[in-house]
Structure formats: structure tokens, C-alpha cells
Write a structure and sequence with these properties.
Layout lengths: L5 H9 L6 E5 L3 H15 L5 H4 E5 L5 H9 L8 E6 L8 H11 L6 E6 L14 H13 L1 E4 L5 H14 L3 E2 L1 H10 L4 H15 L3 E2 L1 H7 L4 H13 L3 H13 L4 H23 L4 H7 L7 H10 L5 H20 L4 H14 L1
Parallel strand pairs: 1-4, 1-5, 2-3, 3-4, 6-7
Helix pairs in contact: 1-2, 4-5, 7-8, 7-9, 11-12, 11-13, 13-15, 13-16, 14-15, 16-17
């Protein structure tokens, strides 16, 4: 079977099409873990997991024990499920790799093996797997299912949000779905939690941006961009109002400064890209933005035409000085930040 997307895997799980071997990996660890749990429950119901669910850690995997468990029959159930978390394929020698492949190429029909990667790096570049891992993924796709869990773009996640909201009896516009995707930093697991709250609150009516602002958890990255935008535009009242809301959410000053600095860097990169006649996509690739955060450089590219390059550069300098002051001065941290924002607004 060829490499499958997470959407295709979800469809197969939902329809009860169960394969004997799965290899899950990718940057979107939250979605990967959620799919793994869903698959385990589908293969082995909760009431039979004590006898038929066997969990292995990749760093201490005993291949002989794995072989024995694979050959074992399920107890009072249809299937046995075996999970292996963080199998470091790169560390396996030639003999162990051959032994592992021999086990996995002849899995009994009553056994399902799920290998999932959540805590070790499997990439040699942004999209390319390490050599042995890449060959192992190809082996798994030939003998079962291999699936890469990629971060979703804001548009991809917005489509999923609309479908999930409608399934729960409410509606949401595309623009509000995009807003929610950005609010959750395109994290599928976080978005699912927020959708459940919003649908319960809306109770069948359309979900609006106001509902999202009221109910959804603050993400410092999104509010920091709003603050950076207000500062860059010289809007003092809006700047300090947003700052008050960040402190009201009990965020510490170092975190806020880090968020504002990151947003100004996004704006600066976007401004340079515009000046160089490059697109936001070029900038996203040049600076290795993950897919779920591409909207940050896209929004910055959209808005940066009203900012002067020198002004953005100077603001980043002020923020760097504030970060140093916060870590070396005994002055109240909020006073340091407010003085820094005032300097940026005056400029």
C-alpha cells in the first residue's frame, strides 16, 4: 500500500479497515498521538486492553519478546494490538534491522503493530527523512501503512473546522474558521478542544469571532502580533490596551517580550521580502516556517507595506535591549516593557 495521508488513514479507521502494520511519524505530534489512541481503541476495545494491548518503548525494545508477542493469539477478543513508541531506526545494526523486518513482514492476521514516533527526530531536513528511517517507512508502506502527520495550513484546518462545527449542529463562516485556525496556531488537537466549547456555547447558531475571542484560550503568538502591529502603526491606546489584556491572562513579561520580538521579526522579514520582490511563500521557505505557522509570515507580508524597514529594525533593537534589561536589572519588569513600547511608539 502506498504512503497515506492522515485524512485517508482516518477514513480507513472510521470504516473499520484495519491493517496489520502502521508507521506514524511527522511534525504534528498532537494529531499523531490522537490518531494512535483512536486506532488502538478501534483495534482493541477498552474492556479487553488489559489482556490484548502490549506496549513497548523503542529505546529498550527486545526483538525476541516482540516476535513472541506478535505470534500470540488474542484473549477473548478479535485482535491483539502492539505499540512501539520512538523506535530509533537509525541506531539499529544490520542484523537487528533484518530481524525486525522479518517479524513485521509476517504479522498474523489477528495482530496489529503500531510504530509511532513522538519524541525523537526522524528528519535530516525540513521534509526529508533520515536514510534508514526513510527506507523503513517505504518498507512499512509496502507491508502496511506509513503516514506522515504534517502541520496543516490555516486553509486546510479551516475546512476541517467548518465540517466539525456543522457535524455538531452549528455553523461557522470561512473567515471565522480561518480566525480560529490562527488563534490555535493550526494545532488540530487544540482546535478540537475549542470547537467543543464553541459549539456547546453557540447551541445551534452561527459561531462568530466574538465567540472565539470570548471562549478560546489566548495564544501569546497571535496577540503579540496584534500588539506589534499596533506599535508599528503608532497606535498608543490600542498598544497598551492589548498589553493590559496579555497581563490579565497572567503572562509574564519575558514571554510577552519574546512574542512581540518574534512578531516584529516576522514583519521585518516580510518587509525585506517585499523590497526584494519576493512572495510571502518565498520568505516562508527561506526562513523555514513550518506549515502551521506560515500564516504568520503571510499576515506580516499583507500588512508590512505601511511600515518602514528602518523603523522595524529599530524596534527589534529596542526589544533586544529590553530583553537584556529584564535579565540583568532589578527594575520592575512591566515598567521596562512599558518604557520600551513608549520608545517604539515615539519613534
Amino acid at each position: 500500500m502506498p504512503q497515506l495521508s492522515d485524512i485517508e488513514v482516518a477514513k480507513r479507521i472510521r470504516t473499520g479497515t484495519i491493517d496489520n502494520l502502521y508507521f506514524f511519524y511527522g511534525h504534528d505530534v498532537a494529531s499523531l498521538e490522537a490518531y494512535t489512541k483512536r486506532l488502538i481503541t478501534k483495534v482493541v476495545p477498552n474492556d479487553s486492553q488489559d489482556l490484548n494491548l502490549h506496549k513497548f518503548e523503542g529505546k529498550s525494545l527486545d526483538l525476541g519478546e516482540l516476535s513472541d508477542v506478535c505470534e500470540g493469539l488474542p484473549m477473548f477478543a478479535e485482535r491483539t494490538c502492539i505499540t512501539i513508541n520512538d523506535l530509533n531506526v537509525e541506531s539499529l545494526n544490520k542484523e537487528d534491522m533484518a530481524y525486525l523486518k522479518n517479524i513485521l513482514s509476517d504479522i498474523p492476521q489477528t495482530t496489529v503493530v503500531i510504530i509511532y514516533m513522538t519524541g525523537i527526530n526522524v528528519y535530516k531536513s525540513k521534509t526529508r527523512l533520515l536514510d534508514k528511517t526513510g527506507r523503513f517507512a517505504a518498507f512499512c508502506s509496502k507491508n502496511g501503512v506509513a503516514c506522515e502527520f504534517k502541520f496543516k495550513s490555516q486553509n486546510d484546518l479551516a475546512k476541517i473546522i467548518i465540517a466539525k462545527v456543522e457535524k455538531q449542529g452549528s455553523t461557522i463562516s470561512r473567515s471565522s474558521a480561518v480566525y480560529l485556525a490562527q488563534k490555535t496556531l493550526c494545532d488540530m488537537l487544540t482546535a478540537n478542544n475549542e470547537i467543543a466549547k464553541l459549539c456547546a456555547y453557540a447551541n445551534g447558531r452561527e459561531i462568530t469571532n466574538e465567540d472565539i475571542d470570548l471562549l478560546c484560550s489566548t495564544q501569546v503568538e497571535t496577540d503579540s502580533f496584534r500588539l506589534a502591529d499596533a506599535i508599528a502603526r503608532g497606535e498608543a491606546r490600542r498598544s497598551f490596551s492589548i498589553l493590559d489584556s496579555l497581563y490579565a491572562d497572567q503572562l509574564d513579561t519575558v514571554t510577552i517580550v519574546g512574542g512581540i520580538s518574534a512578531s516584529f521579526i516576522d514583519l521585518y522579514r516580510a518587509r525585506l521580502a517585499r523590497d526584494s520582490k519576493r512572495t510571502f511563500k518565498n520568505a516562508a521557505d527561506d526562513f523555514s516556517y513550518p506549515k502551521n505557522l506560515e500564516f504568520k509570515i503571510q499576515n506580516a507580508y499583507r500588512d508590512c507595506s505601511v511600515y518602514k524597514t528602518e523603523r522595524l529594525r529599530k524596534c527589534i533593537q529596542y526589544l533586544s535591549e529590553a530583553d537584556l534589561d529584564l535579565k540583568s536589572s532589578k527594575t520592575d519588569s512591566r515598567i521596562i516593557l512599558e518604557k520600551t513600547i513608549t520608545k517604539m511608539l515615539m519613534r
